[in-house]
Design a protein that fits this description.
- The protein has 16 helices and 9 strands.
- With 339 residues, the chain is an alpha/beta fold.
- Helix 9 packs across helix 10.
- The protein is globular and about 60 Å long.
- The two termini are 29 Å apart.
């Protein structure tokens, strides 16, 4: 039964025999087997190939992780809403036609039918079939602010996003409204079809001012987390904001699991919010550039701070594409007490 999975028990604050481990972007370009399966396909064609996307989603299981997260992109949802994207080198996902006007906005369907992202529901079904209940399956969605940044074509450029929002406040607010509504529908669908837990990513919100964060991030975190929890009370949620300076707001948003950045102190967070489960926060840079021994020590330090309870081991953010596979194996093996 799903409640037997170690990670789900940890996410619910139940007793665990050891801290579970997985990693954001664990299915990625750092893994030679991922590259072999991808075989040079462009990103979106690859992610829409259900069989290959399923193969790479489950690849990390061979390292001993305690959960699989489906391989797709946060732009999957706006794509389903009617906004195609292409992946551009050094820029990331770029919309074919950025949202600029109210007319552009009106073309976005706030209630996309699951058929419009059938490759993702098919991926979930295929991965569940491949795992046969051995591991829980995590699904995810981007939060409105981060996804909106991609929809208007500004991506990581926060100054450009701010300028657009200042010049087009109604368009930006309307875009957030549509994305927020669609996100609830998407997550609820994926959980109803067998996702065991899910993570909300707001990658760029950590660079916002506090006032901006309250309006563009916190408001939507609270709304989305509440509505998905109401529909799926037994499916834990994880909130991730990359290196957020607003840990108090993260902890008040409503997710039972909060993902920490490198600059957060895990032990202090455990003390201040004993009712929450914390995820993280081994520095990704150590996996990327350290030795296996340095990785082992970082994991042990993190486990010590976490106290062995209400903790899910992860990184401060995703596995970098230059990470040596031996370091990832050391990360997992140390977490599992194998070395």
């Amino acid at each position: 039964m799903p409640t037997d999975h170690l990670l789900l028990r940890a996410a619910k604050g139940e007793s665990i025999e050891r801290v579970p481990v997985w990693a954001m972007r664990q299915a990625g370009r750092w893994d030679p087997e991922f590259q072999r399966v991808r075989a040079g396909q462009d990103f979106f064609s690859f992610s829409e190939d259900v069989e290959r996307a399923a193969q790479v989603s489950v690849l990390p299981a061979r390292f001993g992780v305690d959960a699989v997260i489906l391989f797709y992109d946060i732009t999957t949802l706006p794509f389903a809403m009617g906004l195609p994207f292409a992946l551009q080198p050094e820029k990331g996902p770029m919309p074919d036609r950025p949202i600029r006007t109210m007319a552009d906005l009106e073309r976005l369907n706030p209630d996309p039918h699951p058929d419009s992202y059938a490759h993702i529901t098919g991926l979930l079904a295929r991965v569940r079939q491949m795992l046969a209940g051995k591991l829980p399956v995590l699904v995810f969605a981007g939060a409105p602010f981060t996804v909106a940044s991609y929809c208007i074509g500004t991506g990581k450029d926060l100054a450009a996003t701010r300028a657009f929002a200042a010049e087009n406040p109604k368009v930006f607010a309307g875009l957030m409204d549509r994305l927020g509504h669609a996100t609830v529908g998407f997550v609820n669908t994926m959980l109803s079809l067998g996702g065991d837990a899910w993570q909300l990513f707001d990658s760029w919100a950590g660079k916002l001012s506090e006032t901006e964060y309250d309006t563009w991030a916190q408001k939507w975190h609270v709304d989305i987390l509440a509505k998905t929890a109401k529909a799926n009370p037994d499916k834990p949620s994880i909130l991730f904001v990359k290196e957020s300076p607003y840990l108090d707001k993260l902890c008040a948003a409503g997710a039972p699991v909060v993902s920490l950045g490198e600059h957060h102190n895990l032990a202090e967070a455990r003390s201040r919010w004993p009712h929450l489960v914390f995820q993280g926060n081994v520095p990704e840079r150590i996996l990327r550039a350290g030795t296996p021994e340095e990785v082992r020590q970082a994991v042990k330090n993190c486990l010590s701070q976490g106290g062995g309870h209400k903790h899910i081991l992860n990184l401060n953010h995703g596995v970098d594409r230059t990470t040596p596979p031996a370091n990832f194996q050391a990360y997992v093996d140390t977490a599992r007490g194998l070395i």
